[in-house]
Design goal:
Helices cover 29% and strands 18% of the residues. The chain has 20 helices and 28 strands. It has a six-stranded mixed sheet with strand order 12-17-16-15-13-14, sandwiched between helices. A five-stranded parallel sheet has the order 4-3-2-1-11. The chain has a five-stranded mixed sheet with strand order 20-28-27-22-23. Helix 6 packs antiparallel against helix 15 and helix 7 packs parallel to helix 9. The structure holds alpha-D-glucopyranose. The site of alpha-D-glucopyranose has 10 residues, from loops.
Length: 730
Amino acid sequence: MKKIAIVCSVLLSHLIVAQVPVYKNKTAPVEKRISDLLSKMTIEEKILQLNQYTFGINNNPNNIGPEVKGLPAGIGSLIYFSADPVLRNTIQKKAMEETRLGIPILFGFDVIHGFRTVYPISIAQACSWNPELVKLNCSEAARESVLSGVDWTFSPMIDVARDPRWGRVSEGYGEDPYVNAVFGVASVKGYQGKKLSDPFSIAACLKHFVGYGMSEGGRDYRFSDVSAQSLWETYLPPYQACIDAGAATVMSGFNDISGVPATANHYTLTEILKKRWKFNGFVVSDWNAVKQLVWQGVAKDEKEAGQKAFMAGVEMDMKDNIYFEHFAALIAEKKIPMSAINDAVSRVLRVKFNLGLFDNPYTEIVEEQSRYLQARSKELATNLAEESMVLLKNKSNTLPFNSNVKKIALIGPMAKDKENIIGAWSFNGKSKDAESLFEGIQKEFKNVTINYAVGCDFDGTNESGFAEAVAKAKESDIIVLCLGEKKTWSGENASRSTIALPEIQEKLVEELKKTGKPIVLVLSNGRPLELVRLEPLVDAIVEIWQPGVAGGTPLAGILSGRINPSAKLAITFPLTTGQIPTYYSIRQSARPFDKQGDYQDISTEPLYWFGHGLSYTKYDYSPIKLSATKINKNQKIMVEVSVANTGKVDGKETVFWYVSDPVASISRPIKELKFFEKKEIKSGKKIIYTFQIEPMRDLSFTDAIGKRLFESGDFYLYVNDQKVKFEVTE
Ligand code: GLC
């Protein structure tokens, strides 16, 4: 009897499995599930998968779109402007149960620097030189996103940017391709975890592919004159690194890449991304970027725009509905082959299967107080803020405050601010969650009198607050002046013709300077600022960027000396707007002598170079040691430097390893960052930092068609203020 029972149960299980279609069989390989599902789909169902609508309260001021009430249940994706997991599950249930095949919807959102726990903006994160910490913050952001019903973030932004007039410098990792690659990879790994199907993993989205940071004149959405050489040498490397790290999706940019808009650029979207890099995820357009091809003059109407974007390699249309409205006709007119549709749908389905959405389409509902602002999230936000605030100036060791400081005049529009300090792209952040600089300083300096005055507004011409600010300053020992930008002054569609602070803020500094009191200038902003007039008036400058919800205490810790600042700039601060673009990896001038080619009216040196950042301790570098000074291209050179903390306080030092190739078949940057490493060094101790030079990786360069070239000869290695020569033969 028992045997019969076993045989029956085995037969029954096979029978059940036989009835469950392969695509619903969670034990079947993903590629088999995709092809099984594809074979069952109608053209209409396939087209729906290639569309993304918005849903929820659309609070992105740059992209006001209708809340789509009559959602087709089989829609491929939603930009989910709600944070309600129950609502998400209700919508998802429609897709799973009211459609013929039950294909889950992919819910995406802009989780750029945190979801509800908002951490420092991306440019600040890069200044921490701590990719591991950034990865942890992104994994926390992923957890909060999943619990809010979001499966996919439109992040990281890895657009190399060298024009701070462009507001979106705040959203990326600065001027260097390698730095954008390292932090982009850290973010991808943080969001996507070990496996996309892990409970708190979300899909990453690399944006804005590609060359968006070259927007002409720093004006957003514009023409970007990207040479083939610059494309391969500067703008593509971060994307290749992140694709290699397994990024699930890519977003095509708004910019026109030297005549071929990013969203209609077959060379970048298909030749490079899919054929050369073997990317098997999908590309989503930026918001309305398909429709914008008409305005950019490469499509006569929306239908042609849809065909051009799709045939270039944009699989999903964000928001503008063009694929939905025109693809049935374009397919019927044989302007879009079914093979291309099938490939595109397969890519979308692959991400959904890899995320586990077919098997676990619904969000686990946990009570709101367990979703957000957990101790771990806030601790990570605090740590990242501490490590991203840059001490730019510290004349006569004004900082940290000594015991003589009994009264602090805390002045400026940023002092009590809780709204702007969390930065742009923080739609689920709430200002009530933020700790102001005032609150942090009040907690840190319990036995010090805080004399507060707002002084002035961020802009405008109202000087009526100056008198009170001057009076508070006169009755205090030192001035902590908190200035900066509103959060809307950087981010998308936030181009500024000058990177100087508004005149009213500069006037306040001048008035306070007349008091003769030392001034510590604290800046909260989303871009490098023009400080040429302010720098001489102040004794110390702390660049805190937009630190998110946990900025007050870290700043206070730096003022008190509880925290030894360890951040360094990931983007150069030009002396004036007129110096833009100014970045460290420039090409050598044809006349690098006698100041030829320099500006006649101002210095050609920026105020603060990429890599600048002060500490409260002192680091002494030993002479660089090389394992060899002559190798062939298949060998490696181990280089090391010992760094001693000869100061009185513990610290964290980042060592930057640069190389240069002074003579090559094309001109090379005067130096290029190839590696960096941040380590803690206790006072009185020393630590060895090492780097292994691999010629094909570190000394090769790309040509204008993406071919890597290595040319033997002399090279230089730069560490701190040292420069050593070595030779590599064929
Ligand atoms: C915006 C931005 C992009 C964002 C998308 C969705 O216009 O350019 O970065 O991810 O639309 O909000």
